[in-house]
Amino acid sequence: METEFWPLTSLLGGALIGLSAIVLMVTHGRIAGISGIVSRILPPSVDKGGFTQGAVFLAGLLLAGPVWYMVAGSAPVQDVSNNFVLLTIAGILVGFGSVLGNGCTSGHGVCGISRKSTRSIGATLIFMATALVTVFILRHVLGA
Amino acid sequence: MRILITLVSGFLFGVGLILSGMSNPLKVSNFLDVFGNWDPSLAFVMGGAIIVTMPGFWLIQRRKSPFFHDFFHLPTQTEFDMPLVAGASIFGIGWGLAGFCPGPALTSLPFANTGTLIFVLAMLSGMMSAKFVTQRMCQT
Question: Do B51 and A18 touch (CB under 8 A)?
């Protein structure tokens, strides 16, 4: 199924994400990487120093949807798969991989690249490559 | 004040994801489907973010410390090691399967889609297992 390409809203949305990353860095000195922030407040080893800041940042993230809904009058378009087995496997892989690899799309893909970190540039190329291959197999080989 | 600024920072991140359409996993999957219904949006989102963040970080790093803290929490590792390669590969496979990564999935949570809820629960358990495994690796 096709989706519409809106370059300007994409750029603007991206700029807001960038602004958020700048605010977090200049105030708390933290990378706005969602997987890092979430994993910091999760057991087995909760980071006491970063807990409040991480939890409040995530509360802000969770507030965006409800506020959007109130202002726009409707929820944004979402096409989420109904294949719960696939979503479970995908969730485990995303969670496990992002913590093992120290970052996800935001931490490596936005903040890391902006810091010109070799590790992050490499990680971004790797996860883009495996994701491309996965989607290719899923859609064009298995025909899902 | 500190709490408010941090809250706003998270809020901006979420609004950015929704505005850019990245809260829709289908748009992300279509970005990854270069040989099918390709939608280049995600490249513009990352580009838009980096255009802002790169000069921003460059200016910030000239400061000795952030406003609310004594020092910057920057990654110290520079080596391209196995956990990074394996982790990024595994993350990419999961991202490709669902079209969700941690930010968009959490931002989508309040829209209460059953699939999103299942993905987030699985993601959190994956994160906790990875923390457990990496701690065990460090101890030995």
Answer: yes
Which residue range forms the structural domain that includes residue B134?
Answer: 2-69+81-139
pLDDT per residue, tens digit, chain A (144 aa), is 889 899 999 999 999 999 999 999 999 999 999 999 999 999 888 888 889 999 999 999 999 999 999 999 999 999 999 999 999 999 999 999 999 999 999 999 999 999 999 999 999 999 999 999 999 999 999 987
Structural domains of chain B, count: 1
Q: Is residue B19 part of a domain?
A: yes
Answer whether B16 touches A (CB < 8 Å).
yes
- The count of other CB atoms within 10 Å of the CB of residue B120 is 21
Q: Do A98 and B21 touch (CB under 8 A)?
A: no
What ipTM does this complex have? 0.96
Check residue B38 and give left, alpha or beta (phi > 0: left; psi -120 to 50: alpha): beta
B65 touching chain A per CB within 8 A: yes
Q: A122: which 2 tokens?
A: 């490499």
Asked if B117 reaches chain A (Cβ–Cβ under 8 Å), the answer is no
